[in-house]
């Protein structure tokens, strides 16, 4: 080992540990440490614990059918309905309690709340309207909707009649809508006239119509919910096959639709997610396994109880909103919140105001948001009473220790445990995270795999790597919430997720390994630190460096708000570290800061990780879900031809950064 290696290893080992408070542990849904061992010993039957959280119309025969890997089946021959599990079964005891608390943009008093009774009625009316329109079991209904209550209502209405939904994020382009409707052969669309963002009405229907023009088959019906207030509309006329949501529901006032009995393995929904190349992947989730997974993880990790008010600030257009705004929380009968707009309008304390006003008990958000809050400063959360919070969560990308600690201190008042939850669209729900009532927290590390989840860090040969060494994250055994396939493309399913580490000719499940394409390392306590997508690992002179570790070091430097690190081509080193940096307000983009950044990285990781270039930038190119587009930053660093920038939230930033690269 070289000196650099030794220094790196030593630094990886230093890690702070935070314990959950006794007060939290005492009331936690899960607090028995034996759960890990019990689940391991009873695998796969341990997952009965998840299935037991649901009401089944017919009991399942077998927990896991692994006779045809990787096409696993869970809770076979069980019958259930997801909407009945999220609504009907709560009516007797919780009918008058709030199911969804919707906070609209505060243009005027636009908030709406739905008790379970009211939500049940709305969902039934919507289901009746969809059914009368001709939507049958297994017809894919596409939804192109922002954060308005009609979105979860329509999702649950589809679930009620056994029609899978395919939600397309409202911020996506018309093209993205058309591609997804085409891929799913979807003949129905639910959308809306528009919505509000930073005080302005946005025209959504024009974009939906533009998308519809690109659909290659006949679209029978389009439902248009009205969100815009009188006077804010864009003068749309509905086409013959377009129906106003309010009219449809009024025509079906009081209607009741018996929930269709679905097989556990029947599709609940499709969610398209982008792959490294080409067409988006249609991830297929099922009724039994997915719902059990979303419910169990909501209970065990987010510590949701029926009497809680739970706030996840994600968009329902992403998997996080599906599992942890809609299905998990509603299956548990809690109050789930959704908000329209942005965290900085009308001011940078929007979320804190919402938490105070509704006395939210949990907040589940993303590192990118936390870094923005940190950049804006602690005076914003200090304006509000956040003492109702009991637990904090993060998801979506690795969280650097500095942001973790800021979240812990300024939002959680050093009293709330933080769950850093690693999972993917494909996994359906959380996979690697601490159980907050059982495990200590280590900032920057997601934690051990959940009980019953067999995650391992392996090298390119598939052999487990030693603690502290970077490798590839794998999941060695199936789990109920897993995707079942890519819609109508079993081959690509195997290719994308299994081929890397499996013997694809074998029908022995032990020969099949799921590969999420993330790099990771594990410590001596079994805590997993996710280093980022595999393509985010930089190889500098043969040293594999996680962009996350370097970013974390940079963000630890005073004056830095956010950083993204990519590998730029280098003649000698193979790759060199390129650091894009956003400064905190009040700091100059000067040589002093540049030197401190370089020093910070050297101090934290070692000279091998020293940035070759530090590029100051007012913003970073981000996808609409807030993920930094590192691939684009790599292309900019290498002054290469840029790929598709159409899914960026802020495409205008690209030229700006390009100018800086060639200019200095
Ligand atoms: C839920 C969601 C999945 C990818 C995943 C990984 C990254 C998510 C993370 C995390 C480190 C965490 N990711 N959570 N990385 N720590 N806690 O985000 O799904 O949009 O499909 O993204 O996000 O790289 O592979 P999705």
From TrEMBL:
Family recorded in the similarity comment: Belongs to the ATP-dependent AMP-binding enzyme family.
This entry's Enzyme Commission designation comes to 6.2.1.1
Recorded protein name is Acetate--CoA ligase
Instruction: Name the InterPro entries on file.
Output: Ac_CoA_lig, ACAS_N, AMP-bd_C, AMP-bd_C_sf, AMP-binding_CS, AMP-dep_synth/lig_dom, ANL_N_sf
Residue ranges constituting the Acetyl-coenzyme A synthetase N-terminal domain according to the UniProt record: 34-86
For this protein, the record's Pfam families field holds: ACAS_N, AMP-binding, AMP-binding_C
GO process annotations (BP): acetyl-CoA biosynthetic process from acetate; carbon fixation by 3-hydroxypropionate cycle
Q: Where are the transmembrane segments?
A: none
Which residue range or ranges hold the AMP-binding enzyme C-terminal domain?
Answer: 549-627
EC top class, as a word: ligase
Domain AMP-dependent synthetase/ligase per the UniProt entry, residue ranges: 88-479
Q: Which UniProt keywords apply?
A: ATP-binding, Ligase, Nucleotide-binding
| Taxonomic superkingdom | Archaea
Can the keyword Ligase be found in this entry's annotation?
Answer: yes
Organism the protein comes from? Haloplanus aerogenes
Please name the GO terms that the record assigns under molecular function: 3-hydroxypropionyl-CoA synthetase activity; acetate-CoA ligase activity; AMP binding; ATP binding
